[in-house]
From TrEMBL:
<dbReference type="InterPro" id="IPR036388">
    <property type="entry name" value="WH-like_DNA-bd_sf"/>
</dbReference>
<dbReference type="Pfam" id="PF09079">
    <property type="entry name" value="WHD_Cdc6"/>
</dbReference>
<dbReference type="Pfam" id="PF22703">
    <property type="entry name" value="Cdc6_lid"/>
</dbReference>
<dbReference type="InterPro" id="IPR050311">
    <property type="entry name" value="ORC1/CDC6"/>
</dbReference>
<dbReference type="InterPro" id="IPR027417">
    <property type="entry name" value="P-loop_NTPase"/>
</dbReference>
<dbReference type="GO" id="GO:0006260">
    <property type="term" value="P:DNA replication"/>
</dbReference>
<feature type="binding site">
    <location>
        <begin position="60"/>
        <end position="64"/>
    </location>
    <ligand>
        <name>ATP</name>
    </ligand>
</feature>
<keyword id="KW-0547">Nucleotide-binding</keyword>
<feature type="domain" description="Cdc6 C-terminal">
    <location>
        <begin position="302"/>
        <end position="385"/>
    </location>
</feature>
<dbReference type="GO" id="GO:0005524">
    <property type="term" value="F:ATP binding"/>
</dbReference>
<dbReference type="InterPro" id="IPR015163">
    <property type="entry name" value="Cdc6_C"/>
</dbReference>
<dbReference type="InterPro" id="IPR055237">
    <property type="entry name" value="Cdc6_lid"/>
</dbReference>
<dbReference type="InterPro" id="IPR003593">
    <property type="entry name" value="AAA+_ATPase"/>
</dbReference>
<comment type="similarity">
    <text>Belongs to the CDC6/cdc18 family.</text>
</comment>
<comment type="function">
    <text>Involved in regulation of DNA replication.</text>
</comment>
<dbReference type="InterPro" id="IPR014277">
    <property type="entry name" value="Orc1/Cdc6_arc"/>
</dbReference>
<dbReference type="InterPro" id="IPR036390">
    <property type="entry name" value="WH_DNA-bd_sf"/>
</dbReference>
Amino acid sequence: MALFERDYDIYRERDALREDYQPDELVGRDEELRTYKAALQPVINGEQPNNVFLYGKTGVGKTAATRYLLGHLREDAAKYDDISLSIQFLNCDGLTSSYQVATHLVNEFRSEHDQISTTGYPLATVYDMLWEELDDYGGTVLIVLDEIDNIEDDSILYQLPRARANGKLDDTQVGIIGISNDFSFRDDLSPKVKSSLCENEIHFPAYDAEDLKAILRQRADVAFYEDVLEPGVIPLCAAYGAKDAGDARQSIDLLMKAGDIARDAESETITEDHVEEGRTALERGRIEEGIRGLTEHGHLVLYSLVTNEIEGETPIRSRDIRPRYTRFARLAERDPLVPRRMRDHLSELTMLGIVSVTERNEGRRGGTYREYELDLPVEQVLSALSETVQLVGVHESVVDMADVDLAASS
Ligand code: ADP
Ligand code: MG
């Protein structure tokens, strides 16, 4: 008998639920698409393209709408002999400066053998190279800067849209499509950048549960075999999605998680229980990611609290956590923070939902103090803290805990 056998029960095409899947049609974005399409129309007319600025929270279809329309634009532009269109799609995640964006763009236009180093040139030199590459192209160039809010200075957002007006380009017409997940990004742009980059602004509002249901149905039809989904599954995923942030990505992820859990359980259908289980698992993953993202001292404070929790010492005051925190910091060869700073870390942990806090009254003297305890299962927190545990050493309270796998996620 084969060790691996193909599953035929749940998924027809699981990849349709993945991040990189592009649906053929977008559901429920007619108005935004109409505005967006109108902004791109000059390209087909052979006119100078508009700059477009899209904004809205994550998972509301900005990237999907862009890929959808630009795919059609590329196809339709090819039917006209006098249009030569190049589309550069750049995700700015990880690119924090105009310099990095500019070198990236230069390299996109250059052949593999002719790439420039991403450090070491003066910015003005990189711009000159960029204008040269762009102008060599000679047609219409659309540059998509997705997740543009990662760029910390706005030099390139000023330079690119104005390159032609500033006499840097003669033969090529450039249009910029900026996409931002961050509302404040737009407000913080300088007026001169705003007036050119944000010529055409399109806001993508969050989805409500009805929108999400339609999006999930479209995806489910591709991803799952018929009759696999129990009737309550899509409404439940949509309700959670609408409650969280109106984010289609999260709802699709939840549906996929539920599908995976059903498949692992060798169930013939996906039930609402699978969705609930999936949500717990995803939330857990998010929290563990949150813990891993804390600073070293945040980790040390949390480790001190966890060991006190295991010993039954919680709820506990900040000053009673302190001796252990100080010891752990020394073991990790770090200078302990002053009490106030240490308390700031406890407040941060509280805000993240990892720790809960109770105000107590001092009694007749009238003062108040705070007591902290863990708001998550100890095992979960410890597994996210595995690096700190290795650095500090396994505390005696942890040694006896059989179900913690500290080697697992280092
Ligand atoms: P954003 O770029 O705004 O963060 P995305 O475009 O990446 O969001 O959308 C997140 C996910 O949801 C993608 O898988 C996308 O295909 C899907 N999606 C978003 N909006 C729609 C829609 N209107 N119709 C179909 N799928 C959508
Ligand atoms: Mg996006």
